[in-house]
Amino acid sequence: MQKFRLYILLFLMIPFAISAEDGSQLWLRFPAKNGISADKIIFKGNNPTLNIARKELMNHWQGQEIELRTDRSLKNLKGGYKIQSVQNKLVISAEKEIGLLYGVYHILRLQQTKLTTTNINIIEKPSYDVRILNHWDNLDGTIERGYAGHSLWKWDDLPNKISPRYEEYARANASIGINAAVLNNVNASPNMLRKDYLEKVKVLADIFRPYGIKVYLSVNFSSPKVLGGLENSDPLNKDVQKWWKEKASEIYKLIPDFGGFLVKANSEGQPGPQDYGRTHADGANMMADVLKPYGGIVMWRAFVYSPSKEDRAKQAYLEFVPLDGKFRDNIIIQIKNGPVDFQPREAFNPLFGALKKTPEMVEFQITQEYLGHSNHLVYLAPLFKETLESDTYSDGRGSTIAKITDGTLRPSKISAISAVANIGEDKNWTGHHFAQANWYAFGRLAWNHDLTSEQIADEWIKMTFTDNEKFLNPVKEIMLTSRETVVDYMMPLGLHHIFAGGHHYGPEPWGDYKGGRPDWSPVYYHRADAQGVGFDRTKTGSNAVSQYFPPLNETYGNIKTCPENLILWFHHVPWDYKMKDGKTLWEELSYKYDTGVKNVRDYQKFWDKMQPYIDEERFAEVRSKLTIQAKDAVWWKDACLLYFQTFSKMPIPYDIEKPVHELEDLKKIKLNMGHHN
């Protein structure tokens, strides 16, 4: 009987041992043994946020006594905190309780990454006021460009049935300083603003509040007409203004700290103020006015482009620069990092710095719409950093996008940074264990954009897997090179948007969608012909270079000075053009594709050697994804080289692995995957 009981006990323990390594804990794998006793935590007051901070310490903190101290004089830290060693204890102080919780997560991170927690003097002030995840989740549970299963938000179950993952989500975000979430898709359903849905939103807002997270909603511009039965949704119509005013009042009665609206208008068929001959400023100002009394903001997206003759990369600038200075002070223009659409590499968006009197915020994409979905290992901190550190020269040298958007270069009432979330209901949250690092990296950079990609990768690996150097160093190398690798095997040298239409997963450089919009076709972007390849954006072409401040307009506009990693973004380059290393453009392109393939194969070899250091479950799942990625890299290389060779008429260099596919077979591949954003 004793033996039988033991078996039962062991059997009961097995699921916990297994489920612990399914990736569901993210980077929050703090020591499971008990932390310090309650009497070693000194604090005054009793509020939900403070109680979470205490609970985290009691569960996980292994160090000395801690005092949590609110100090109203620390207002200048803008939600940040101080951590100081005072005699034999650590004192965490902040203006508000949420700052104390952030401070607790900071010391738990130090403990977990085995950094010193004694004799410390840390002052942390976030780079941005609003650090926001944009969820492209639909009310039916699907997620546009989501690759980790269905939505976390179970609208049909709410408000009565509450998933435990809502709080786990809030905790994960708080641990990296994310303080805002847009719950629904920018292609918004008007129903989001119905009373029954707002009551569901209230439940989420109540769960998130103690973790310092404010809720925002994407709104559909035609809501007054669709929901309110009004004749139109013209922003200058008094009845429309009254409808929005009453809707704002209804929202704030339910959710007093509601953050505000995110708006996609007059883009890709979405309704907007231009439907009524009004401007983006007219539409945004009407919404800003109704939110103003409550402290709410409007994030108005600059991702607008219409079927016009103009180069798509120029359209946001052309649309918004004439409106500079016409927006209310609680409006911020949300600008994608590049001027086209979240490509593996883009020139930065020329709108950054061009709006001198209007606050601007970056929109990144964490979800890998154009980066192999959740099948490819691509660490995105280097992409985020590349944008943030880009010098626009808008106010002279050193006018980086980080300084323009964080308020240091141009003080504004509010600063913000956003990214499209990659989170779904998969056990591991993001569909690929390494995709968790991109959620983590965005949060860490939103809090402190001076951190390096390497520091963030180092923290994340130690917190998520192990600090064993035999694992840490090779895996960090994979992560830090992975973004450049994907650019090499997909779209090197500034090639862009040559994806298969609709799902954006595989290559389709031959794509020429007759009868559709030209700027949805790959051939629009690469312009390959017998002479060469690339989009001429110089003075002889679309003149998109003119939207950049000097000296960049000249640098990009001159083929000799244009950075080679963007040469095909700005120039139509002859196939036999001599690159800086002496190769012709055609050879350079061939070697880049080949390097991308070789690198992924190296990742596979590195990863196979990592088996002794981590759990079998995550090891096997990552290994299987790398197998897919290696096959996809060959698919990309073969499709692009065989297709472009029909124009270049040049041989693929002899020392490169020959294509394993035939071009005609590749053209027949049609993936059936579930729209555009």
Automatic annotation (TrEMBL):
Cell cycle keyword on record: no
Record keywords: Carbohydrate metabolism, Glycosidase, Hydrolase, Polysaccharide degradation, Xylan degradation
Pfam families the record matches: Glyco_hydro_67C, Glyco_hydro_67M
Residue ranges occupied by any Glycosyl hydrolase family 67 catalytic domain in the UniProt entry: 112-429
InterPro entries given in the database record: A-glucoronidase_C_sf, GH, Glyco_hydro_67_aGlcAse, Glyco_hydro_67_C, Glyco_hydro_67_cat, Hex-like_dom2
SUPFAM superfamilies reported in the protein's UniProt record: (Trans)glycosidases (SSF51445), beta-N-acetylhexosaminidase-like domain (SSF55545)
Residues in Glycosyl hydrolase family 67 C-terminal domain copies: 430-655
UniProt cross-references to Gene3D superfamilies, sorted A to Z: Alpha-glucuronidase, C-terminal domain (3.90.1330.10), Chitobiase/beta-hexosaminidase domain 2-like (3.30.379.10), Glycosidases (3.20.20.80)
E.C. no: 3.2.1.139
MF GO annotations: alpha-glucuronidase activity
Stated family: Belongs to the glycosyl hydrolase 67 family.
Annotated protein name in UniProt: Alpha-glucuronidase
Lineage: Bacteria, Pseudomonadati, Bacteroidota, Flavobacteriia, Flavobacteriales
